[in-house]
Amino acid sequence: MERARYIAIDGPIGAGKTTLATLLVERLGGRLVAEPVEENPFLSGFYDDRRKYAFQTQLFFLLSRFQQQQTLFQQDLFGQLTVADYLFAKDRIFAALNLEANELALYEQVYALLGGRIAKPDLVIYLQARHDVLQARIRRRGRPFERRLEPEYLEVLAKAYNDFFFHYDEAPLLVVNTSDIDLSVPADADALLSVIRRHRSGVQHYNPTR
Question: Domain of 151: which CATH number?
Answer without folding.
Answer: 3.40.50.300
